[in-house]
Design a protein that fits this description.
The complex is a heterodimer of chains A (367) and B (352). With 367 residues, chain A is of the alpha+beta class. In chain A, the strands form three sheets. In chain A, strands 1-2-12-3-13-16-14-15 form an eight-stranded mixed β-sheet, sandwiched between helices. Chain A has a six-stranded antiparallel β-barrel with strand order 4-5-8-7-6-9. A three-stranded antiparallel β-sheet of chain A has the order 10-11-17. Chain A has two domains: 254 residues, 3-Layer(aba) Sandwich (Aminopeptidase), CATH 3.40.630; 84 residues, Peptidase M42, domain 2 (Elongation Factor Tu (Ef-tu), domain 3, Beta Barrel). Chain A contains seven helices and 17 strands. Chain B is α+β, with helices and mostly antiparallel strands and 352 residues long. In chain B, the strands form two sheets. In chain B, strands 1, 2, 3, 10, 11, 12, 13, 14, 15, 16 and 17 form an eleven-stranded mixed β-sheet that branches. Chain B has a six-stranded antiparallel β-sheet with strand order 5-4-9-6-7-8. The N and C termini of chain B lie far apart (45 Å). Classes of the chains: A alpha+beta (367), B alpha+beta (352).
C-alpha cells in the first residue's frame, strides 16, 4: 500500500536553531482571526524562494504549491492555520480605558492581570483587575466577568487605539529546558512545520500548502483553500491540548488527557468536526511504527481542526489531522516540548515520502 | 540625577518576598550607599540608611519607612513535576492562571501558573474560579528534573517584565511598594543638594505584606521623632471608583485618619500647596493598611504621616503607576525634611 523508503539523516528536516528562530518570530507575531496580516508576511517571505506557485486568496489564505517529479503524483494538501485567538477593541471609555471582546474560544478566567499588545503597531497595554483589598470573600467565589475588565494603555493613548483594533496576549517566546513557552503555539507550530515541509518536499507528491485564516472562528479559510487546491487528500497540521496534569486526588487517574506531552505527534481518529479517513490514519501509524517515531492517538472527543471543513469540500476529500500536543492552549502561555514538534515534523516528512497512488486506490473503509 | 525608570527596573528584577528580602536589599545597599552616610541591616532584615543632618548634635531624627518586600508564592508540594503552592501576602487567586513566575529553586526556574481542567478537580471546583490549592506552577521541566531542582518552601516571584505605557505610566509586578522605595531614593538624592538640620533615617522595611515586622522593629532601633510612611494607595480604575480611590497620575495621596498625626498632615499639605505639588487627600477612616499601623505604636508612640502613590490593579502583576507621582512624592518629602527646624517638633502638637 505504501512505498518503503530508507531513512537517512540528510533527507529529514530537523528542528535546529533556525527553525526555532522562525517559530519564535511566528509566535511573537500578531494574527487574530480576520487580521492575519503579520503572520502572512512572515510566511510569504519564508516560502517565496521554495514554492513553485504562491497566491493569496480572497480570504487571505496563503496557497503555496511545490510540484514533485515523476508520473502519477498524488496531490497532497497540508493545512495549518495562521490565525490565533485574541481580542477586538470595541469601545473607548472614560480615563482612556478600552472595552474589548474575545475572538475565538478563550476562558475568561485567563484574562485578569495580563499584558497585551494592541493594533498593528503592537502598542503595549494591560488587562488589570480590581485590587484584592476591595473584593469580598463571596465575590472571590465568582469569576471576574470579562465585562468588568478593560485594556489600559496609559492615560495619554489618545486616538492611537480605536474600536476594531485587534489585540493579543503579549507573551514573548522562550525556550525553557526541553519546552517551548509562547502564545499562539496553536497553530504557529503547524505553520512552521508546513514551511519546513515546503522546503523539504519528498519528490513523489505535489505539495499543496495552505496557510489558512479564520480557523478559530469556524474553519473558514480551510474550506475555500481546499476548493481551490482540489487535492487528492489532505492533512491538517495543528496543535491540540494536552490535559495531562495529575488529578487532584493522587489516587485517581487522569483518564481524559486528550493527549500527553512527550508522547509524540497526536493522530486523530475522531473529533467534533471530522471522522478522519482510516486509510490515512493507518498510513500515519504505520509510518511511525516503521520509522520508530513516537506517536499517540488523540483521545476521540471534542475539538476540531481545518480537516473538519476540508473533508466536506467538493465531492469529499480524504482527510486526517496530526497535532503537536500543547499544554494550556488558548491561554496567554502555551507549553510544548521541542521533541514533540521535531517528531511531528519527522512523522509528516517520512509519511509524505511514502505516499503512492495506491494509498487511495482502495475504497475508504475501517478496520 | 537618578534615572527613575532604570532604578525601578533594577529593583523589579530582584526578588524579595516578605521574609526573603536579601536580593532587593542588596540592590538598595548599592543604590543608597552614595546617598547616605551609614547603612545597616536590622535583625529582621530591614535596610537602614542614615543621612546626617547639618544641625548641632543632638539632632532630631525623621524616619522614612518604605517597605521593600514583595507578595508572591511558596511551594507546598510537588506532584508529577508540577508545583503546588500557597500565597505570601494577599493574592486574589482569580488573577493567577497564566501568570509568568520565577521559582527560586536550587537555581531560578522560569514557570507559569496553570489551571488544571475541570475533570481533574473535585465536584464543581473547576467551574468557577479555581482555588489556589488546585492551581499548579509548571516550570517546563520533566518530573525527574523538577524533583532535583525544587523543594517545599522554595519561594516563587512574579516574573512579568515591566511595561512602559503612555503618559509616563509603568505597569509591572511589585510596584507595591518598590515605587515608594524609589521615591525615597529620589528624596535622598534631592537632599544631597539641600541643607537639612535633622538626621534622616531611610528605611526599606521588611515583611510589610505579612507581619509588619520591619515597621515594628526598625523604629525601635532608630527612635525617630517623626515618621513618614510611604506606600501605594488605590488609583481609580476598572472596579475601583469609590472614595477609596484617587484619580490616576494626578498627585500624591496625603493620608488622613487615625494613623496620621494631624499637625504633620497640615505640614505636608501646606508644603504641597506652597510648591504647587499636586496632592489629594487620601481618607483612611480606620487603619491605613501601611507600615504606619506599626510605626505609630512603637515604644512610646511616634507621630506619623502617610504618603500614598496612587496605583491601579494593586496586587496583580500588572500594577500600574504614574512616574509623575513617584517624583512628586520624592520632592515633597525632601522639601518637608529640609524645612524641619530644631523647634519643629514643638509644633507637632495636639490642640487643647
Amino acid at each position: 500500500m505504501t512505498k518503503k523508503i530508507e531513512l537517512s539523516a540528510g533527507q529529514v528536516p530537523e528542528i535546529g536553531a533556525s527553525q526555532i528562530e522562525l517559530l519564535e518570530k511566528l509566535c511573537n507575531a500578531t494574527g487574530v482571526s480576520g487580521d492575519e496580516h503579520e503572520v502572512r508576511q512572515i510566511v510569504l517571505e519564508e516560502i517565496k524562494l521554495v514554492a513553485d506557485d504562491v497566491k493569496v486568496d480572497a480570504l487571505g489564505n496563503v496557497l503555496a504549491t511545490r510540484f514533485g517529479r515523476g508520473e502519477q503524483r498524488v496531490r497532497v494538501m497540508l493545512a495549518a492555520h495562521m490565525d490565533e485567538i485574541g481580542f477586538m477593541i470595541v469601545k473607548k471609555h472614560e480615563d482612556a480605558l478600552f472595552e474589548f471582546v474575545r475572538v475565538g474560544g478563550i476562558d475568561e478566567r485567563q484574562l485578569p492581570g495580563k499584558p497585551v499588545l494592541v493594533g498593528r503597531e503592537g502598542l503595549p497595554g494591560v488587562i488589570g483587575a480590581k485590587p484584592i483589598h476591595m473584593t469580598t470573600a463571596k465575590e472571590r467565589q465568582n469569576k471576574i466577568e470579562q465585562s468588568a475588565l478593560r485594556i489600559d494603555l496609559g492615560p495619554e493613548i489618545g486616538e492611537k487605539v480605536k474600536p476594531g483594533d485587534r489585540a493579543t496576549f503579549a507573551t514573548r517566546f522562550a525556550i525553557t529546558g526541553p519546552s517551548i513557552r509562547a502564545k499562539a503555539l496553536d497553530d504557529r507550530l503547524g505553520v512552521a512545520t508546513l514551511i519546513e515541509l515546503l522546503k523539504h518536499v519528498p519528490a513523489g507528491i505535489d505539495l499543496l500548502a495552505a496557510f489558512t485564516v479564520q480557523e478559530e472562528v469556524g474553519l473558514r479559510g480551510a474550506r475555500v483553500a481546499a476548493y481551490a487546491f482540489d487535492p487528492d487528500m489532505a492533512v491538517a497540521v495543528d496543535a491540540t491540548p494536552a490535559y495531562d496534569l495529575p488529578h487532584w486526588d493522587e489516587d485517581d487517574e487522569n483518564d481524559r488527557y486528550n493527549t500527553r506531552l512527550d508522547a509524540g505527534p497526536a493522530i486523530y481518529v475522531m473529533d467534533r468536526a471530522t471522522i478522519p479517513d482510516q486509510r490515512l490514519v493507518t498510513w500515519l501509524q504505520e509510518t511511525a511504527q516503521d520509522a520508530g517515531i513516537p506517536c499517540q492517538l488523540r483521545q476521540p472527543g471534542g475539538g476540531g481542526t481545518d480537516a473538519g471543513a476540508i473533508h466536506k469540500v467538493r465531492g469529499g476529500i480524504p482527510s486526517v489531522s496530526v497535532s503537536v500536543p500543547i499544554r494550556y492552549a488558548h491561554t496567554a502561555v502555551n507549553l510544548a516540548r521541542l521533541d514533540d514538534w521535531a517528531n511531528t515534523l519527522r512523522l509528516l516528512h517520512t509519511a509524505l515520502g511514502r505516499i503512492t497512488p495506491d494509498l487511495l486506490a482502495v475504497e475508504r473503509r475501517g478496520r | 540625577m537618578i534615572d527613575l525608570i532604570a532604578h525601578l527596573k533594577t529593583m523589579l528584577s530582584a526578588a524579595g518576598l516578605s521574609g526573603f528580602e536579601s536580593p532587593i536589599r542588596s540592590i538598595l545597599q548599592e543604590a543608597w550607599a552614595p546617598l547616605t552616610d551609614e547603612l545597616g541591616v536590622s535583625k529582621i532584615g530591614s535596610l537602614h540608611g542614615l543621612k546626617r543632618g547639618q544641625g548641632e548634635p543632638p539632632r532630631r531624627r525623621v524616619l522614612i519607612s518604605a517597605h521593600m518586600d514583595a507578595i508572591g508564592m511558596m511551594v507546598t508540594g510537588i506532584q508529577d513535576g508540577l508545583l503546588r503552592f500557597t500565597q505570601v501576602g494577599g493574592i486574589d487567586h482569580r488573577i493567577l492562571p497564566g501568570q509568568l513566575v520565577t521559582v527560586h529553586g536550587r537555581q531560578d526556574l522560569p514557570g507559569v501558573v496553570v489551571q488544571p481542567s475541570a475533570h481533574l478537580l473535585p465536584g464543581d471546583a473547576g467551574d468557577g474560579p479555581v482555588e489556589m490549592k488546585y492551581l499548579f506552577v509548571d516550570v517546563g521541566l520533566r518530573p525527574d528534573a523538577v524533583d532535583k531542582s525544587v523543594r517545599i518552601g522554595d519561594t516563587i516571584s512574579f516574573a512579568q517584565e515591566p511595561i512602559e505605557l503612555t503618559g509616563e505610566a509603568l505597569a509591572g509586578h511589585t510596584l507595591d511598594n518598590r515605587v515608594s522605595v524609589a521615591a525615597t531614593t529620589l528624596c535622598l538624592a534631592e537632599l544631597q543638594t539641600r541643607v537639612h538640620t535633622w538626621d534622616v533615617w531611610a528605611v526599606a522595611s521588611a515583611q510589610e505584606e505579612e507581619t509588619l515586622g520591619g515597621a515594628l522593629t526598625s523604629p525601635f532601633d532608630i527612635r525617630p521623632d517623626l515618621a513618614i510612611v510611604i506606600d501605594v494607595c488605590f488609583a481609580q480604575g476598572p472596579g475601583s471608583s469609590d472614595w477609596r480611590s484617587l484619580p490616576f497620575g494626578e498627585g500624591v495621596g496625603l493620608g488622613y485618619g487615625p494613623n496620621i498625626h494631624t499637625a504633620l498632615y497640615d505640614l505636608f499639605e501646606q508644603k504641597a500647596k506652597a510648591l504647587e505639588i499636586p496632592y489629594q487627600r487620601d481618607l483612611m477612616p480606620s487603619m491605613s493598611g501601611t507600615d504606619a499601623m506599626a510605626v505609630q505604636v512603637v515604644a512610646e508612640g511616634i507621630p506619623c504621616m502617610v504618603l500614598g502613590i496612587p496605583l491601579r490593579y494593586m496586587h496583580t502583576p500588572v500594577e500600574t503607576v504614574s512616574l509623575k507621582d513617584i517624583r512628586r512624592a520624592g520632592r515633597l518629602m525632601a522639601a518637608v525634611i529640609a524645612d524641619l527646624a530644631p523647634d519643629t517638633l514643638e509644633k507637632i502638637q495636639w490642640e487643647g
